[in-house]
Write the structure tokens for this entry.
Amino acid sequence: MKFCPKCGGAMVPRVEAGKRYLVCVRCGYKEEAGSKDVAHYKGVEKAKEKVLTTKTVSRLQTKKMSKEELESIKEEYYEFVLDQMGEYGE
């Protein structure tokens, strides 16, 4: 991992106009990157399935929802938690 010479933020690889750059996530400083610079970075896939967290459920409670909708969301969340506990508890 490389850090920004200006602010010390992490530099991440980006491709712009067919060229590879390392760009600071804090200040936006940019420098051209060679294959050696980006070789140790690995790609990350975004999750395909969206999982409700307690924060999401709490935020949804502040919106105007019917009791049935809220109960449905809670039930999905509890099922997910119980499934995860079963997978890791065995």
